[in-house]
Amino acid sequence: MNSELIASRYSSRRVAANVCLPDPSIDKPWTLESYRANGGYQALEKVLSGSIPHTDIIDTLKLSNIRGRGGAGFPVGVKWSFMPRAADGQKYVVCNSDEGEPGTCKDRDIMRLNPHALIEGMTLGGYVMGATVGYNYIRGEFWEPYQSVEQAIKEAREAGFLGKNLFGSGFDFDLHNYLGSGAYICGEETALLNSLEGKKGEPRFKPPFPAAFGLYGKPTTINNTESFASVPAILRANGDWMDGEWFKNLGVENAGGVKVFSVTGHVERPGNYEINMGTPFSELLKMAGGVWKGRKLKAVIPGGSSVPVMPAENILKSNMDYDSLQQNGSSVGAGSVIIMDETTDMVAVLERLSYFYHEESCGQCTPCREGTGWLYRILKRINSGRGTMEDLDTLLDVANRIEGRTICALGDAAAWPVQSFLKHYRHEFEAKINAGITHSYPTANAA
Amino acid sequence: MSNPNRTEKMLSDFSLSEIERELSKFPADRRQSALMAALRIAQDEHLWLSPELIEYVADIIQVPAVRAFEVASFYSMYELSPVGRHKISVCTNISCMLRGCDKVVGHLKNKLKIDFNETTKDGKYTLKEVECLAACAGAPMMQIDHDYYEELTPEKIDLILEELK
Amino acid sequence: MSSIKIEVDGRELEAQAGEMLICVTDRNDIYIPRFCYHDKLSVAANCRMCLVEVERAPKPLPACATPVMDGMKVYTRSELAIEAQKGTMEFLLINHPLDCPVCDQGGECPLQDQALGYGKDDSRFEEQKRSVPSNDIGPLIATEMTRCIHCTRCVRFGEEVAGVMEMGAPGRGENVKISTFLNRSIDSEVSGNIIDLCPVGALTSKPFRFSARSWELRNHNSISPHDCLGTNISIQTLRNEVERVLPVENSDINECWLADRDRFSYEAVNCERRLTHPMIREKGKWKEVDWETALAFAAGGLTTVIESGSAADVGGLAASTCTLEEFYLLQKLMRGLGSCNVDHRLQQSDFRDDAVAPSFPGSEAAIADYSNFASVMLVGSNIRKEQPLLSLRIREGWAAGKTQISAINPVQYDLNFELTNCELAAGPNLVSRFASLARAIASETSKSLPEGISKLADASNLDAAARQMLEAADNGALILGAASQQHADASLIKAIAHWIGDATGNRIAVLAPANSAAGWIANCLPGSEGKNVTQMLSEGLRAFILLGTEPELDSIDGKSALTAMENAEFVVQISSFTSESVNAYADVLLPMAAFAEAAGTFINCEGRDQTSKVAVSPKGEARPAWKILRVMGNFLDLNGFEHITLDDVMEEISASVNLGSISASSRLKDWKIGNRTPSEKGLFRIADMPMYRGDVTLRHASALQATADNPAPCALINPKTIESLSVKDGDNVIVKNGSGSAALTLKVDSAIAPDCVHISAGFPETIRLGGHVMVTLEKA
Ligand SMILES: Cc1cc2nc3c(=O)[nH]c(=O)nc-3n(C[C@H](O)[C@H](O)[C@H](O)COP(=O)(O)O)c2cc1C
Ligand code: SF4
Ligand code: FES
Questions:
Q1: Global pTM?
Q2: Considering only CB atoms, which chain A residues are within 8 Å of B116?
Q3: N or C: chain B end with fewer CB closer than 10 Å?
């Protein structure tokens, strides 16, 4: 079907910077031609034909202060320096385009609008880390972004930006797309590796870390789509070639550069906003048109469903960077800013989030497999007016017994919302228990 | 392990060549890496993965059938029982919930006269509830087959279904 | 790896850098609870029961997956550790049924034990408990999957150890259901181990189900009679009945594993077809009598035969599962009578090298070495089914990337490792192909190949296999399996093996069935004066003494065996079981103690002697075979039958053999290549002995008989070969060999060597066919 009704690549709004999301004025930014016309593949060409030492690139990335955009915020330059570049044998770079964190929709746009930036970033990564093969793991539902990157890979291969002996440097790099099949857990980097090996997406216990034992047991580096896609622009440094300061100075201390924030929920203009790190939240909210329907702000989850919820007063005094959000009780996560207005039923929201973690738990480790279902079922009872005050203690206890005891951080991600919602909105849970009313949001999910 | 005496051919030449293409992305001794793609390709041809089809794919990839079944049952996009020709997947996760996915769900259920995980009598549609599909800025949204539809309203849904007819 | 020091609960411990914490604590008897961890399986770290506190780690860490580091301080009983373990326990119990009173695992359940230590009395879980459907996965293992705690030990065992992934963990989250694909049966020959591995009552023994509680059972350490390893077992009994058999860990032999054959054969002990009273045949009718009468009758019958002819008219045959003492007394009795016609090698047919044979067929390598070889060459060996635990060892080396394995086999057996080179050759071709291997070795090493061998070689090229063996040198093994030993030209094969062993340095293993080594060491052999089993059976004798054997089923050549028995004037059968065919030809039935009912000595392929003990007293009037033989000696007025205890027998044996110092060598004392057995035209019958048909005990073990490893006999044929015949797949056919024939269904199977038809021995249906012979096929 070729309907206008199908969501188009142009639907999201972009502001401030154009590192990962291209300037809206560029026509068909996803084509090689457009990308080239706007400085694309210059970084790769310079690095490869100029035989720039990989350490220089790592130094630039370290200086630029770019931190991983997938959620954990680990400095990219530091991660790249962990790879045993000189070691014999195959090494891999893997891009995490699984984008499953509720509230997050930025990588989809990067792949639809700017696939060549991702390809260039991964190729540079391959060069820096001594990997000749890369895989881009795309979540299974992303058929359109998958096609977009497939097309771009084809163009890049034909143009000689992927393949053998790139720019006569002797460096080979090939890149393959890999389509997942529906599992949030595959966003966790070791589950992603297992999935790439054709297995169930069960996270691996760490150590060993992927840099030592990754895909097929070989040294592997995994970064988020946005992390890779930022690299060419950081090296180009807006003309000041390889000057890490340029990117760094766009942001603040401890958080270099710009980042895409997906602003969703109760706002006038939901969308992806690529803005300077450290921008006050209130400004971001303004860009997004403010709370919808003229209502008041109640709460914000600033980094995707896994990070703690922040009441309005806390988020309104925060800036959008790692330190500030942390000081105020949450974190940047994947930069997925979920806005909730004054009418929001926090019990219903938490029930829905708990359902998500219960549904997406891979099931291998005991606390998460058993605990997420338990959390959800208690919340479902409370939300339908069948809860007890003891349930609230049990909820916290169960959450505490999941947190920090699991193989991967999904357990933590399931526990944090429970802990933070109860911390800030316990009265709403108590009110539901006391009133015994049924929930105001008809939660759609089947138990 | 495999069944060497099987003769029935369950996939078209096109599907088989697609599987070969996927296999070529990986080292020769890592055929299993193409298992997920092979299952997807098989499902594209048959709409759902019967146990026989899973075993057939397992034989092509050269893994034990139970291994392939583990994978097929782990990922939510594989269908292990028959579905309609179009799969309508509605996101009900937080951003869509905040922007009224309940109306989308209600409208679809009423219109198609089915509940989640059911198929219309004419075998045309199957309705599914899914987790966040990463189109939160376009909430509420749904996916039909490969395509995303965003900023849904009951009227827009009617138009979309009209076009699918 | 370097040695480091860590501190656990205040104790300083030695450790190897990088090993997992739980290995260190286990070694030092510091208890850390666990469900998923098992030292023979990969680390899954999924149950989270082994969480402990590690200094400076912000979270509790799983001891099973935390590598130790120098100076690390660990607290296994601190508040944090105990809280974490209790938390896991609570999670495990919320969905676990509290059905311990009706659960077979009760009393030996780590979950139950640990729940006592860590669980809470009342649950605050108010939701509905999960229930999981259980499916029938075959005759050996009962399932109750609601009890499953998802430790994945059974899945990992199949994939990693057994080499067949039958159990899987499909589904996600709390919907993961450990199961087989499409609820198919578990067919692995070592499947019973998952019963031991399952830490809860999800997988239990079907034959054992509900028969006893573990705390009521008495343990009797013993030795399994069915393999050539001398697998260590514990026979568990209740009120003088064998209830089950479990492995006893022995790192040199069976590690912690047990093959299903050895685990479930005990069912025969309790079966209905036990022979419980002495019986004699009078005027064609069977009659129960007392021992005195029966023994007098037996002695009388034998004496009559000898007096009307000579002692050489009597022969003695023993099953390969007999004990050293039994073998010894049988041959002593025979020799006392004046006959050297005594043998235990019912599955062998070529005895030309007896005079130069080593002291017993065995393995020049220790069992533990089998997981470390660089090369293994299988010749005529379906090792997975013949010696399952040895096969696991070889698989371990293969899976670790250490071992390359090649084979010259009559059938492309379904092995649990992959072959680097595989030659499909049966009958005469097997010898030719093996000789070609020798030729390839000669040319690689520029050694001169004896003419006898080069004459046998065919045109095939086995250079790759030859190089594999040569590169491994003394870290390689050459294994001769059942098909080689049963071969009509087995002496040629052994001679070639000898030459190859010398030329490559590889160690030779002749893996003979069951306790054969003891049969050799006890001299249960004809020597140069007596007749071997083939001569006895094909030429016939006037009288036989059978010890624990039904020759028509134990022998590959059932036809000769049955004919010999039918034509004999007098047959004394000493057995634990009754059988129609034996009843038809025997004259006296003397009930002998079955497995678990008698003590005795087993000698394994390494030459290691081990003793089994009495676990239960014999059923009915049955008596240990050694006692029967001893008293028969008295009835026959023979000298030297005054033993009072089994030890007396052993003492007598020890006077001539020093059991402590026997070592396995498979080299011949001197060898030459004999002539090839002339072969006729036709299809060569590959007659293997299926794994649960090889001895009389196994044939009476009902659950084993119902497994997939025991299919009804049929005729299997290569698809190419069938093209030249006027029959097709699925036809009912008559297979003929001379006067013998069998009616069977024909099935096409590409695993069978061309120009052959594979028909199992050991079944009544195929007795009349003769052994490895040429047959013809016609449509029924
Ligand atoms: C449950 C779970 C889900 C995750 N999902 C994603 C995801 O969808 N995309 C992503 O980039 N990272 C995700 N991560 C984080 C990755 O494990 C990993 O830290 C990241 O891909 C590293 O890339 P970066 O350093 O560039 O951020 C997830 C982590 C967890 C624990
Ligand atoms: S925490 Fe949950 S998702 Fe992560 S490994 Fe454990 S069961 Fe799987
Ligand atoms: S024994 Fe360590 S996690 Fe299970």
A1: 0.95
A2: 444, 446
A3: C
